[in-house]
Amino acid sequence: MGIELDIRPIKAWLPNINNPLVISGPCSLETEEQTLETARLLAKDPRVFIFRGGVWKPRTRPGSFEGVGSIGLKWLQMVKQETGLPVGTEVANAQHTEEALKAGLDVIWIGARSTASPFVVQEIADVVKGTDAVVMVKNPVNPDVQLWIGALERLNQAGIKNLVGIHRGFTPFRETKYRNHPNWSTFIELRRLLPNLPVICDPSHIAGKREYLFEISQKAFDMGMDGLMIESHRDPSCALSDKDQQVTPAELAKILDKLVIRNATI
Ligand code: PEP
Ligand code: MN
Fold this sequence. Notes:
13% strand; transferase activity; alpha/beta; isomerase; 38% helix; binds manganese (II) ion
């Protein structure tokens, strides 16, 4: 049996979209130049609809690059102004959310570590409440479909209707080919319980390595997912986070060219 959520389809907030929802941009925004150059290259591809860039980075261990912080919001505004692409970033608390909405970001997403915390989801919901922002919710790091649904319900109960699920895989229990385990049966369960929810795949965080992006993306469409979030960087070899899984905008185009898209229902 399905669960009743009052959710608007992607077309309601992105009326020009006729294809699967493709979101791309760097794992982390690093400099104004890197942000704008990557965005300019992506904007040439009409299949890319939303530009993403992390400004507050939830690193597993301290000591690595934790993002440029609020200054990155200004760079996202510049991307939006110059390319016309809607822009989005990850938020992990009320303050991030307030700043992101104040900066006019179109999309915010809740990362896998934060989806696992009902308190964090609630404080984000309380800030987004009453706005038109799109909130994307990654699966929690652990394979718990109820926790994922609970986060979506919590946001929906605050009146937030522009919701999207993102499957980014689950922490594996042993070393596997991929960085995070894509548990496709969890997606099937989510679709069964929330049939109206648009769900996209994040092959970058599933793969951990760029060479697997195509096979995971194809599988996502074969399963009936509605789009992709793929990390891209003007020069992945210099990226300050997730360098092995990022692609250049030209490599992204090649992946999109090869995909056979059967089922996207946006
Ligand atoms: C990201 O999108 O850059 C990110 C940190 O993702 P996740 O929450 O899936 O680990
Ligand atoms: Mn990343």
